[in-house]
Fold each of these.
Amino acid sequence: MKPRFTLLWVLLFAIAMGYLESAVVVYIRELYYPEGFAFPMKVISRQILITEIWRELATMIMLLGMAVIAGKNTLTRFAYFIYAFAVWDIFYYVFLWALIGWPQSFFTWDLLFFIPTVWTGPVIAPVIVSFTMILLSLVIVFFNNKNNDVSICFLEWALLICGSIVIIISFTWDYCRYIFNAYSINQLLTLPNKNIFDYSIKYVPASFPWVIFVIGEVIILEAIFRLACKK
């Protein structure tokens, strides 16, 4: 199957998953945020929380399974996975905006992930990351189509991993700042979970560390540039 044809079907699959994801969020917000989503977060039942965590895991498995089927080697499977993940994430916001008019702007704050800690950031940040992932995936797919021996060298992997870690830090920075302003590491390990949970649920995002985020993006773009220029 030609890469363009495969990319098209992966695109359609990811868009459909983006709609399913947004539909689930619409249901949850109708239950817990009928007046509209805003921080601080509301307490949800343990059953719903566990269901959400498993649903996120199931989503990752679905994207991974699709990538394994679509790719012809480990590298292209990786490329199709991040391509699908990025398209899914972008259209998740597109459909939320179409269905309930949210987010109001690209700088509206969103709750991104719960694992291993809370990730938050303005919507524009994960969208930028998604477009970067699409760029990387396309470079890998099209160069691999021309040359089956295409590979990512150690330095390029190091840059990609380092940049990703820096971006993750930017998404978790504000929440961790909020927690560590109230508790020491020793307290986090010894205090009852309920005490920490009661405090964390009051969290309202204050500022996004754009400098850290941009540094992470630049590192990843350097890796993509190196990969594209050597072929």
Amino acid sequence: MIRYQLLATDGAARRGRLHTARGTVETPVFMPVGTAACVKTLEPRDLSALGARIVLANTYHLFLRPGHELVERLGGLHRFMAWDGLTLTDSGGFQVFSLGARAERTGASAGSGAPRPGPGLVTITEEGVTFRSHLDGSRRFLSPEIATQVQLALGADVIMAFDECPPALADRAYHERSLARTQRWLERCRAAWVAGSRRRADAGLHPSSLFGIAQGGLHGDLRARAIEEAAALDLPGYALGGYAVGESPEEMWAGVARDAPQMPSTKPRYLMGVGTPEDLLAGIAAGVDMFDCVLPTRTARNGLLFTSRGRLPIKNARFTDDQRPLDEACACPTCRTYTRAYLRHLFRAQEITALRANTIHNLHYFLNLMAEARTAIEAGRLDAFRRERLAAWKAGLDGDGASTGA
């Protein structure tokens, strides 16, 4: 079972440590996303060299391919992907939202913003969610019990409760209905987790820790209710879901600053699917311990790189003859080895090496930012550290015209 140890505070910010049967993780921590049991372009040894200690995989995708039964037969997710660190599996709830958001809006009031899944794509009921596989169109079903059982079969160290994730700007009535259902689903997830954990213990397998997810959009009273009801179940950890799904960054930062301190202080706090370096620092300042996002790896494959002085679009022509490293303040293998000119050439030539080199750099940048934040909290200067970083990003990249926007 996961255990949170608080080591230091600075305002609401927390410096801590996660203890598990498989090892420890220093917090605040950023978790690279390996949706299909792989962080794209990288090997497990790359992740270890970068300092990653926990990665995220996705239940929805592994449920469809290759199937959790196969992964379980082959020794579980860690052996399957040759990863000796910790793993966290998303429940698939966000995929339900993303499918629903693309569905035909039927029966929705004008301007409500609430998705009403159209026929054949996704159907949300009290029992669970019926959807069509994006791989072959087959009809599939996930319930709180199935999602929990799938994650237990995968053998993740942290598993997430099955929830519905509506758009932040959906109307309040939709959020209230969705939140009530998510809370009922959480109780069912807990029952399935308790039963499954007993079976795993009897088989001598590593335990999995269930995290509850608090939804509620931008409505502070709904968030508070969700946190209170989830905390009453005394789970190993808790997460804020439903942020970065349509609201402005400022709205998200304000919501997280309001919500995170209300979460149990003795348990790890996780902000799901967030985000940019600015988002991470805002979340850390609010007292969040764990983060994940596809942003650093996805933008790396699209040629957008994060540096100490802002974002750098490596494909731009101004880097054609630039012999400087990508970021002179960075000690990652990419910056120690290659020039901007060469990285631009690789990217424009569509060489696989470009995607790998870019991904190594971006993940190093995110992981190093978290390490620096941990040090700043210990020194009682997180606010100053945050101001310094924001000022440097705003100033831009040595006149290269790099933007602070993603």
